[in-house]
Amino acid sequence: MTVNDDIKRCARETGFTLAGIVSVRDAEGIEFPPGRGLKRPADVYPGALSFVVLGIVVADEAQNTSVSIPGGYYPGLSEEQYFNFYYEITETRAWRLAHRLKEEFGLNSRPTHRVALKPAASLAGLGHIGRSTLLITPDWGPRVRLVGLLVEQELSPDPPFARDLCAEQPLCREKPLCIAACPYRAIAPGDSRGVPPGKKVNIERCVVYHVIDRQITKPWDRFIRRASERGFMECTLCNLACPYGEGIEKKGIPPVPGAI
Is residue 62 part of a domain? Predict the structure, then answer.
């Protein structure tokens, strides 16, 4: 069994459904939109040589719950003003994994959400960047949430994902369902490839962008599913429209023996 196999086994046992590996060298070349709080791997963890991309499956919409406390403006919200449940879940599990890899294999690593995770996940073989710019996985569609683990050791990278799942999907050949599902046409038509980072989705038209407004006004309020005055489940209409994610609620996620 290789170190890669050990890492992926430990990832599954820590509660991750997806795990893929890309070299930091390749991850450094990822372009990302400015002003979103993203960084290059070397700026997050100098000395890291490998990047493990980890994912959980969103089997219930409650996993998309966030709480926004007015007082900041995107992307300047501090961690004291914005609480995102799947960020907390994935990062907590990633820290558990990091501690286990240190104890069992002597690997030094650090979790992060600051590196551009979707393109890194595609480079790590986990899925295709769809028309919505979301990562589309063959089994779960875009209903996955990601975190990264920067590792000091050089690991063998996984082959990049080569299929175009959107082009393969008969229901999306005439007009992608994710684009049609967006109530404010935030997603530009066409392929995501070749489009400059940040230009495919107009975040000013995205409902999720407006849940942090000091005063949430119509029409944005119409599509916000509230748990409390400032607690909400993010708009996931483009996620839910993807045929690859259908049936998750019924089929569930395969259990992992020994998962904690």
Answer: yes
Mind giving me the DSSP string for 165-179? HHHH-GGGSSS-HHH
The total domain count for the chain is: 1
* CA-to-CA separations, 140 to 44, 117, 174, 258, in angstroms, rounded: 29, 17, 22, 22
Assign 105 to helix, strand or coil.
helix
**Do 152 and 48 form a contact (C-beta atoms < 8 A)?**
yes
> Are the CB atoms for 179 and 132 separated by under 8 Å?
yes
Residues 215-244 as b or e (16 or more Cβ within 10 Å = b): ebeeebeebeeeeeebbbbbbbbbbbbbeb
Strand bridging mode 128-129 / 65-68: unpaired
Return the closest-CA partner of residue 260 out of 100, 126, 141: 100
pLDDT per residue over 106-156, tens digit each? 999 999 999 999 999 999 999 999 999 999 999 999 999 999 999 999 999
Alpha-carbon distance 110 to 39, whole Å? 14
What would the DSSP string read from start to end of 126-157?
Answer: S-EE-TTSSEEBTTTBT-EEEEEEEESS--PP
Which pLDDT tens digit goes with each residue over 73-117? 445 555 557 788 999 999 999 999 999 999 999 999 999 999 999
Distances, alpha carbon 72 to alpha carbons 68, 79, 137, 234, in Å:
9, 10, 33, 18
Half-sphere exposure at residue 48, Cβ-oriented, CA atoms within 13 angstroms: 28
Residue 259's identity, in one-letter code, is A
Separation between Cα atoms, residue 107 and residue 126, nearest integer Å: 23
Does residue 256 belong to any structural domain of this protein?
no
Domain range enclosing 224: 1-251
Examine residue 258 and state whether it is found in any structural domain, yes or no: no
